[in-house]
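hey so u asked for the seq, here:
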Amino acid sequence: MYKITIDPGICSFPIIVKAESDDMQHVKLHISTGCSSIQQAAKELEEVDAYKEIFVKPDQSTTYQVLSKYVPHPSCPVYTGILKAVEVAAGLALPKDATIKVEKMD
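ran it, structure tokens below
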């Protein structure tokens, strides 16, 4: 099992994704957060097929389709964070941190 912590920034609702796969294809997701939008989506994202999530165009993945129904902000990093959890749990990527850093330039 892998634990992925997503810090979405200004909204201050961190998301914890626990992802596990027994067969390196079907990934069980346990998503917890204070964000009501993500809580609704989490009910529909309890298990996904990693190959159908990772090897398709973004708008064709179940993760993007479900999140798009509930998450009001397209820049929310939870889309990528959940897909990264799926990818790692299925053994399709090595577990390595990914970051988005925001800096104001003068």
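The chain is about 30% helix and 20% strand. The chain has a mean pLDDT of 95.
lmk if thats what u needed
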